[in-house]
């Protein structure tokens, strides 16, 4: 699969993601994605017959710190650099990115 990745494949993927790529980016991504797919094929060739399945990626012995309640950043400080903040409401406006 990795050696069969074509420039038109990358162009199709870019169109699905609505990305406008330059010719140099298309060539670069074709090579990079091809290398990733080649590595994935190598990993799939490994014999994992005697490797037990992993139920999750977390350790059975958590090393996270204890969850301790403490004071948070004051509202004024959190909103100080927001371009369109409402200190009274504790909110700030962001540009609309979905819909039109």
What does this structure look like?
This protein has 100 residues and is mainly α. The chain has a domain at 2-44: Histone, subunit A (Orthogonal Bundle). The protein is built from 3 helices and 2 strands. The protein has helices at 7-16, 23-44, 75-79; strands at 85-86, 91-92. Helix 1 packs across helix 2 (23-44). The model has no long low-confidence stretch (mean pLDDT 86).
Quick summary:
37% of the residues lie in helices and 4% in strands.
Major sheet: arrangement of strands:
1-2
Structural class: mainly alpha
- Average pLDDT level: 86
Apparent shape: flat
**Spans of at least 5 consecutive residues with low confidence:** none
CATH architecture of the domain at 2-44: Orthogonal Bundle
The H/E string reads HHHEE
Q: Into which percentage range does the β-strand content fall? A: under 5%
Portion in helices: 25-40%
Largest sheet: 2 strands, antiparallel
Counting H and I runs of at least 4 residues, what is the number of helices? 3
How is the CATH topology of the domain at 2-44 named? Histone, subunit A
Number of strands: 2
Query: What distance separates the N and C termini?
Result: 39 Å
The radius of gyration over CA amounts to 24 Å
CATH class of the domain at 2-44: Mainly Alpha
CATH superfamily of the domain at 2-44: Glu-tRNAGln amidotransferase C subunit, N-terminal domain
């Amino acid at each position: 699969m990795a050696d069969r990745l074509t420039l038109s494949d990358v162009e199709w993927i870019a169109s699905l993601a609505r990305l406008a790529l330059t010719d140099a980016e298309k060539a670069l991504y074709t090579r990079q994605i091809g290398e990733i797919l080649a590595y994935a094929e190598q990993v799939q060739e490994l014999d994992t017959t005697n490797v037990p399945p992993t139920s999750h990626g977390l350790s059975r012995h958590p090393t996270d710190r204890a969850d301790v309640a403490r004071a948070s950043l004051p509202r004024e400080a959190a909103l100080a650099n927001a371009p369109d903040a409402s200190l009274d409401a504790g909110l700030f406006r962001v540009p609309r990115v979905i819909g039109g």
